[in-house]
Amino acid sequence: MSALSELNREMEQCEDCELSGQRNRVVPGEGSETANLLFIGEAPGLHEDQQGRPFVGPAGHFLDELLQSIGLRREDVYIANIIKCRPPSNRDPLPIEVKACRRWLNRQMELINPKVIVTLGRYSLAQFFPGDAIGKAHGKARTKDGIIYFSMYHPAAALHQGNLRKVITEDMLKIPPLLAKAGEVVAEEQKPEQLSLF
Ligand code: URA
């Protein structure tokens, strides 16, 4: 069993906060264990809680469309959330829940080791850039600890505010050049080793 599958099994036993008593399923995340691109949403909703899979409701359908627009499928990326269990009635996660759950996300980031992390929505943004406003940060990339972070509005925002659909769709198109740039940085770092093969 892979280290990530092992981690998912541990997550399924988690009782670190009160959400554990109310969930149907833990939603660890899914996708490629070696993905270059990691999407981090907020928390599971009704459908995710029932199926144990991230982004399978209406917001997830939009995320699938967005992935398709840049020629990717779910299997090519990894999709996770800040919170692994559904908050009742989809209320905002409480700071104590975010704190309790953070260790799982940290471990996922270590194991997947993505080159680019896309934060979806303000909760996810706040985990990495506290105090930043999503209205300003969306569509922008910055590097921190060797990872390129790119912030987007949450796909669910487009379901409530139709005008954000275009913004989100346009922001998504900025991801392929970031992946290409991240690849070049890695290739550059590997050059001396590659040369020594000849
Ligand atoms: N919204 C999220 O942030 N995550 C999900 O998995 C589903 C909806």
What this model shows, in words?
The chain has a single domain, classed as Uracil-DNA glycosylase-like domain (Uracil-DNA Glycosylase, subunit E, 3-Layer(aba) Sandwich). Helices cover 47% and strands 13% of the residues. The protein has helices spanning 3-12, 46-51, 58-69, 95-112, 122-128, 134-137, 155-160, 164-172, 175-195; strands spanning 30-31, 37-41, 78-81, 116-120, 141-144, 147-152. Helix 1 (3-12) runs antiparallel to helix 4 (95-112). The model is unreliable at 192-198 (pLDDT under 50).
What's the layout of helices and strands?
Blueprint: H1 3-12, E1 30-31, E2 37-41, H2 46-51, H3 58-69, E3 78-81, H4 95-112, E4 116-120, H5 122-128, H6 134-137, E5 141-144, E6 147-152, H7 155-160, H8 164-172, H9 175-195
Parallel strand pairs: 2-3, 2-4, 4-6
Antiparallel strand pairs: 1-3, 5-6
Uracil (URA) binds next to helix 3.
CATH architectural arrangement: 3-Layer(aba) Sandwich
Order of helices and strands: HEEHHEHEHHEEHHH
Number of helices: 9
Distance between the termini: 36 Å
CATH topology group = Uracil-DNA Glycosylase, subunit E
Count of distinct structural domains: 1
Q: What's the helical proportion of residues? A: 40-55%
Q: Indicate the mean pLDDT.
A: 93
Number of strands: 6
Please identify the structural class as seen in this structure.
alpha/beta
Rg over CA atoms: 17 Å
Low-pLDDT sequence parts: 192-198
Question: Biggest sheet, open or closed, and with what strands and sense?
Answer: 6 strands, mixed
CATH C-level name: Alpha Beta
Placed side by side, the strands forming the largest sheet appear as 1-3-2-4-6-5
Q: Give the overall form.
A: globular
Per CATH, the superfamily is Uracil-DNA glycosylase-like domain
